[in-house]
Amino acid sequence: MPRLLPLGDAAWTVEFGDAIDPALHAQVMGFARALGDAALPEVIEWVPTFRSCTVHFDPLAAGAATLGPRLLEIAAQAPHTRVAGRRWRIPVLFGGAAGPDLAELAAHCGRSEQAVIDEMAATVFRVYLLGFMPGFPYMGGLPEALAMPRLATPRKEVPARSLAVTGTLCAVYPFASPGGWRLLGRTPLGLFDVRRAEPALFAPGDEVMWQSVGADEFTRLEAEDAANRLDRKGFLVAPEAPWPR
């Protein structure tokens, strides 16, 4: 049963569970879609997450006083919606200066660095939400065998476009930032650009697989992307193409 939680005097959080799970996320996205269809005039915006959706509203608007129960009604009636997003195969330079935590994670998991790279490249990651900074994708799907806690002391600066993991989550830092996730590599592609019609590369519901590339290919792609000469559509996988499940 969804739970209604107050968040100050101008927001409600509708909570569907306490796990990171595709089925639970489908409930969240189904509620978000139904909320959009309802077009409630007092609602300003809503923010879906792994397991909940926060609804911001105008507390002075008509209907605000009864919004909470109405949200629970919508949540109860909304169909579960597994968002059919795009499928991406994104190049990554693993290890070395690009992935300074790869060796430690491999040792922690009792595997070789190449075995970790191979498993990362064979895994389909699902984008659950964007947060922390513009375009930062929180992705689920990291195999339990590669799970490792975040750093005890976060780095003061993580390089932009770093591929990172913690627990069973995976992400890429769009910009240089402090951070405590384990860095396994870097992608040559920028993840957020306000000059584009869709500034964020990924969206909730997208699926991502990593493709290991060498240093020369990484440098070439990085230069082309920086010069805005790289067609992002070239990294999309067609819906009819084979895709691991």
The CATH superfamily of the largest domain appears as: Cyclophilin-like
Count of alpha/pi helices: 5
Main sheet overview: 7 strands, mixed, barrel
Q: Write down the Rg.
A: 20 Å
**Percentage of residues in DSSP E strands:** 25-35%
The CATH topology label of the largest domain is Cyclophilin
Tell me, rounded to a whole number, the average pLDDT. Answer: 94
The sequence of SSEs as H and E is EEHEEHEHHEEEEEEEEH
Distance between the termini: 29 Å
- Strand order within the widest beta sheet: 5-12-9-10-7-6-13
CATH-derived architecture of the largest domain: Beta Barrel
What would you call the quaternary organization?
single chain
Structural class: alpha+beta
Rough shape? elongated
Number of strands: 13
In the predicted model, the low-confidence regions spanning at least 5 consecutive residues are none
Could you say how many structural domains there are in total? 2
CATH class of the largest domain: Mainly Beta
Structure description:
- The structure is a single chain.
- The chain is α+β, with helices and mostly antiparallel strands and 245 residues long.
- The chain folds into 2 domains: 75 residues, Gyrase A, domain 2 (2-Layer Sandwich); 149 residues, Cyclophilin-like (Cyclophilin, Beta Barrel).
- The protein is 24% helix and 27% strand.
- A hairpin with a 6-residue loop joins strand 6 and strand 7.
- Helix 1 packs across helix 2.
- The chain starts with a strand and ends in a 19-residue tail after the last helix.
